[in-house]
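Sequence in, structure out.
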Amino acid sequence: MFRVLELYSAVQVFGSLYLMFFIFFLGDPGCGGTFTDSEGILISPNWPNNYAHNRQCIYLIRLPPDEQVALNFTNLELENHSDCSFDYVEVRDGRMETDPLIGKYCGSTLPAPIRSSSNSLWIRFKSDSSVSRAGFRAAYSVGEVLYITKRVVFCVVWILTITIET
């Protein structure tokens, strides 16, 4: 949803009056975006007041390569449903909607802290046409630096047979 700011101006040129108007569309604060800082806050639209109906917001957290994203929900107040099919926050491990699902959250139970396996998390907030609540607030930061190493483990097993004669 966009807010509209209209500006009007009247100009008189050589005895004629011209009316000009400008329309600016202001983005919806809190509705998605790409986040590249090492830490930040994600909020649902209109947080901490009730979010609007029929909203979909996509948030992408993208950190430098070799870093992980740590995401911690500090507030969650969405319409509750057993399979979170009405209003929900969906978190995926990667940069796209098709990446592995970490979780789909609704209601008011805070999820456990989330850690990505790469440098990105893809998050969708979705609301339906009925119930509206306060929404969510989540903090993200750099989790860990990823170091990929290969380790080879050698295991030697000695079998010793002892025969005792009596």
